[in-house]
Write a structure and sequence with these properties.
It is a single chain. With 309 residues, the protein is mainly α. The protein is 68% helix and 5% strand. It contains 13 helices and three strands, in the order βββααααααααααααα. Helix 2 crosses helix 11 (230-246) and helix 6 packs antiparallel against helix 9. The longest helix is centred in the middle third of the chain and has 35 residues, at 88-122. The chain is globular and about 60 Å long. The chain starts with a strand and ends in an 11-residue tail after the last helix.
Length: 309
């Protein structure tokens, strides 16, 4: 999946070998556009929108997979197909909401569980607030790495991580001005500074520092404080991510982005040539849609769905 200024595009390869696209125009809303410019707040907005969008695109990929493996879909009568088409956008909205809820629940679990374990295992021995936060961050990191390692062995997630790596390779080749061919793209690394995986590790680092400023009197106080601070942790982590992206070409400061790159060694895998071909197709289609939108604007056509990043 690739997101441009005006459109997001996901490409999947059907069982027949054909590449099919799922295209979504970015829907600009004045309220969200205003919020997306406010430091700290824009991180929360970006995360929620990314979660909702990602859920829709994953649902499309899942639907294509099921369609290729469901013989009944080939023999469905027209009335059933029309009913399915009419309910498509209702289903997509539902999937987006599930994606947002999954994000929130996952964030709460990975925040509350390390706080609970750190309290019952180490608080009796450690009295420094910073050290307590550091231990909590270490537990969170261990749980995260164990989770990512565990799911990476499943065939489906491995393919997702391979496509993730293909996306990074395509973007790197494009940024270096190279022609987007499979051979050129495959030469590049699966790691990239502007990756959401970097946000995850940055949120742990920010949490360690932020939590050390807040005292608590019981394990439940500790958990409630952590949960209440989730929006602030998200906001600060997003701003830090923007900063690391801005200084990535400065040798002395480039190391700020290294923790995120190290985590990507788990969240990306080397893609096959076929997977790179699909990633190139999605990226080119996204650029084509963006160019069409720019042309309409240049011709004086009023934009009804303003885009924002």
């Amino acid at each position: 999946m690739f997101g441009g200024r005006y459109a997001q595009v996901t490409a999947v390869r059907r069982k027949t070998g054909e590449i099919e696209f799922f295209e979504v125009k970015k829907q600009g809303q004045p309220g969200l556009k205003w919020l997306s410019k406010i430091p700290l707040v824009r991180g929360i907005v970006a995360l929620v929108l990314a979660s909702a969008s990602g859920a829709k695109h994953l649902q499309f990929a899942s639907d294509m997979f099921e369609r290729d493996h469901d013989e009944e879909a080939e023999s469905a009568d027209e009335s059933v197909q029309e009913n399915q088409s009419s309910s498509k956008w209702g289903m997509i909205l539902g999937v987006a909401m599930v994606g947002i809820l999954s994000l929130l629940i996952g964030k709460m679990v990975f925040t509350a569980l390390p706080a609970f374990l750190a309290s019952i295992l180490f608080d009796r021995f450690v009295h420094s607030m910073f050290l307590q936060s550091l231990i909590e961050g270490a537990i969170k990191t261990i749980l995260l790495l164990a989770y990512l390692c565990g799911i990476s062995f499943t065939p489906l997630i491995k393919r997702v991580f391979q496509y993730h790596g293909a996306e990074h390779k395509v973007i790197t080749a494009f940024e270096r001005g190279e022609e987007l061919t499979v051979t050129n793209v495959q030469k590049h690394s699966t790691l990239h500074y502007r990756c959401g995986s970097s946000f995850i590790i940055l949120s742990i680092i920010v949490g360690v520092i932020l939590y050390s400023f807040f005292t608590y009197h019981s394990v439940w106080d500790r958990i409630l404080i952590r949960l209440a601070l989730i929006p602030l942790v998200i906001g600060l982590s997003y701003e830090l991510l923007r900063m690391t992206n801005a200084v990535k070409d400065i040798p002395i400061l480039a190391w700020l982005g290294y923790p995120g790159l190290w985590l990507q060694k788990l969240t990306t895998k080397e893609p096959t040539d076929d997977q790179v071909e699909v990633a190139i197709a999605a990226f080119n289609r996204m650029r084509e849609l963006d160019a069409q939108a720019e042309a309409r604007l240049a011709n004086g056509v009023q934009r009804t769905t303003p885009a924002f990043n």
